[in-house]
């Protein structure tokens, strides 16, 4: 995966435009950020259920965030860390393919590299997402500097659902 070029795959049926119905139209594109944590798994399940009920397409974005601290830590192998990320990506891909099949849901799986907030924001803009779903942060440090979810809410471009 090269920097700046997302790795994009599509599964399930293709999204079909539907005529407008007053009072019944919900989101057409639901974007969810996943990273392999328990809260992101719950966010993915919530987003898939919502997209299925609304007849929307689902965009699943996995962001591989480079960690500059790894290079400064003795005993941490950057290649092993990359293999772990690749394994996680493969596992997510299998789950998404299974969900697309079971739910009959059009799903786009996109892998990006960079800052999770920037990449999710850019993906939401590119796909013209009607809403963004993310899991609540499990990291204590985010209380001080702000989580990805908080930063997305402050952006104010789309409704953001934060799943605990």
TrEMBL record:
Residues 1-27 are annotated as: Disordered. It comes from the Bacteria. CDD domains: USP-like. InterPro entries: Rossmann-like_a/b/a_fold, Universal_stress_UspA, UspA. Residues 1-10 have a biased composition (Basic and acidic residues). Belongs to the universal stress protein A family. PANTHER family: STRESS RESPONSE PROTEIN NHAX, UNIVERSAL STRESS PROTEIN UP12. This is Nucleotide-binding universal stress protein, UspA family. It comes from Micromonospora avicenniae.
